[in-house]
Design a protein that fits this description.
Elements lengths: L5 E6 L2 E6 L10 H15 L6 E6 L3 E3 L4 H8 L2 H4 L3 H8 L1 H10 L4 E6 L2 E3 L1 H7 L3 E5 L3 E3 L13 H9 L1 H10 L3 E2 H7 L4 E3 L4 H13 L3 H14 L11 H9 L2 H12 L9
Parallel strand pairs: 2-3, 3-5, 4-6, 5-7, 6-8, 7-10
Antiparallel strand pairs: 1-2, 8-9
Length: 268
Amino acid sequence: MEYETLLVEKSDHIATVMLNRPEKLNAINDRLLMDLEALANELREDFVTRVVILTGAGRAFSAGIDLSRLQDLAGDQQAQIPSAVERRRRGQLGLRAMNALERVEQVTIAAINGVAVGGGISIALACDLRIAAESARIWIPEVNLGVPLSWGTIPRLVRLVGPAKAKELIMACDWVDANEALAAGLLNKVVPLDKLMECAQEMAEKIATKAPLAITMTKAAVNAVSAISFGEMTYSDSDLFQLCSGTEDIREGIRAFIEKRKPKFTGR
C-alpha cells in the first residue's frame, strides 16, 4: 500500500517507515495522522513483519503540528471548520493514530534523527523503543500555545519518566537534548547521527531473530502490566483540546509562536 506522507520499505521481517514531508520538517497534518492509522491497520494483517523502524526524512524527526493547522486555530474557527462535530472528529485524529500505532503487535522502534517537537514526541512515545541521534533535541511547546498536551501523550510520558519530570517537560516548555532525555528515561539509546539507522537496524534484527510469538506475548504482557493501553482514560483527550481551542489564550499563543515572541496570556 502506498501512502501520501509515509515511505514504507519492507525487507525480510523488518519494515522501515519514514515520515515523508521533509520540506515541512515532517510537520504533522491530518493526512499524516490518517496515514499512520492506516499503516497500523495494514500491519495488523501483516504476519511477516516483526519489527518496524520509524524515522523522519531529511533533518528532522518531526517538527510537530503543521503551522497551517495552527493558523486555523488562531483565526476564526467557525469560518474554518463549520461544526462542533467536525471539530471534535478532527481533534480525535491524533489520539486515534497514536493508539493504533501503539497497539500493533510488531515491535516498534523510533529512530529520532533530528528535532522531535510536540506531536513528534507523541509519535515516538507511541513506539516501544526510542533511539536518538546525539544531535537530536526534544521540545513540548503545547502549553506555550495555550493548549494541553494531548493524543494520549501525558500518560505515556508519565509511565516513562514519572510524574514530576513529566510536569517539568510539559510545563516549562524547555528544549531538551538527547543526553538529558536519555538520563530521564525517555530514550533507550543515544548514538552519533551517522550511526543512528545502523543501530536501529541492529536492534531490529536482534529482536526479529527471536521467537515471534514469545516477542508478541512479551510486548502484550509488558504493556498490560504498565497499563500502557489505558483505553478509556483518554476518552476526553480531544474534548480537552477542543475546550482550550475556543479560548483567546490559544489564539494569543499561536500568534506569538508565528511572530516569534513571548505570549501574553490573560486566562480568557
